[in-house]
Amino acid sequence: MAKHNTHRATGRAHTPVTDTRRAATGLGGAAVLGTVLVGTAFAGTPAEAAPAAPAPAPATQTAPAAPSTTAPTTALQSSEKLRWGSRGDAVSDLQSALNNNGANLAVDGVFGPLTDSAVKDYQRSNGLLVDGVVGPETRGSLNGTSSAPSGGTSAPASSSNSGNAIVDAARSAIGTPYSYGGSSMSGMDCSGLINYAYQAAGIDVPRTSSQIANGGRSISQSQAQPGDIVTWPGHVAIYAGNGKIIDASGSKQTVVERGIWGSPGFVTYR
Question: Which regions are flagged for Basic residues bias (predicted)?
């Protein structure tokens, strides 16, 4: 009698036959591998990314105010007279004030030839005495607290009147002993005589001979008027007219009036 083998081979799993056509497709036509769904969502439609949210509108901002382009007015606080050779913060303030009025100076606190020229240009443009010295009138004008002298004159007196005053003061010093560094009737050197005579006419000039020669406006001998200054290297004198000068002579050791010699230069502060 034949026997049916009812035992399966040990270790072999029973695998039911499955229609491969059904296994090849799943929901929505996507392939199904085990329990993993590939290429589709369970809803049966392709997955779509959510649209990006619109960028928020930028907050309205008030544009910053444009910086002022007007240069601040520089006040000259110092009451000291400034001239060629002066140094310090007062000169720096002066240079800044001149720059605010059209100059183009380095603000270095040194009153040199460029600052001297800028001061004279300002004085000339504003009807002031053109002497390169920043005294009360020029300082007040730069600070906006004073006006130019009435009539637009550039000196407190006419050129001829101031020249006569300068020559008269210089002649009054004839015979005064020569004294290096002096500027009084007890003794004076060449630049001291210039300062003494010009102060009598109310005009400020630098102290040393080189500063005096470089500080004035150069003119020709034919343009020179009594009271203008005659210059040589290391020496200055007052032009008395008619080819003569008054000077404190180191060789003669006194103040004298004498004829011009050599080929000097001429400058004016009027």
Answer: 1-11
